[in-house]
Amino acid sequence: MNKLVADGIASVDQGLDTVALDMEKVEIAANNFGASMTGAGDDVTKFDAQVSQTQAFTQRIAQFVGLEGGIEIARSAMRNAISTIKELDKAMTEMAVVTDLNVGDYWD
Fold it and tell me: How much is the pTM?
């Protein structure tokens, strides 16, 4: 009977040792998982920063395109104004040829 009790106690001790080792493995795995999650958090932060930079770049492009469009509209308006002035000057010159007035008289 003593042998049976001793074997039972030894078996329980061995089981407790196994549980203790398994608990250490669980702790190591949990620490590794925590480190992995910290790394994943860093990756998400980096990705968020890249998204912000991409959005800022997109806004700068939109502003440039808008500014470029405004400049082109101003150029076109200036070309039209110069063309209109040339046509007006040509018409005034033709009128001056037919009348006694000169171009300077028309501008006054």
Answer: 0.41
